[in-house]
Amino acid sequence: MTTAIADAAAFCTLLEEELGLHITPQDLDRPLDDVPEWDSVHLLRLVTVVENLMGRSVSVAGLLEAATFREMYDVVVRS
Q1: Taking the CB of the first residue and of the last residue of the chain, which one, N or C, has fewer CB atoms within 10 A?
Q2: Fold of the 3-78 domain
């Protein structure tokens, strides 16, 4: 795994720097429905950014099924 997404805190940094979402480690378990800024465009941007950083594909189906950012992080780590 790239050091850019070495842990959940780094994933939060990526969300802020690349998507403009201020998500702290404490917010990782918050339901995505409770994050007013989150939408499908952010999901597509996240896939693109993560795939470019990691040099491999990420499970879009897994990200679509995720209910929290922690679940998304887990998908990224497992992909």
Answers
A1: N
A2: 1.10.1200
Long-range Cβ pairs for the range 66-72 (8 Å, 24+): 66/32, 67/31, 67/32, 68/28, 68/29, 68/30, 68/31, 68/32, 69/11, 69/12, 69/15, 69/23, 69/27, 69/28, 69/29, 69/30, 69/32, 70/8, 70/28, 70/29, 72/11, 72/46
The structure's pTM equals 0.89
| Helices and strands: H and E segment counts in the chain | 4, 0
Q: What six digits make up the tokens of 53?
A: 């950083």
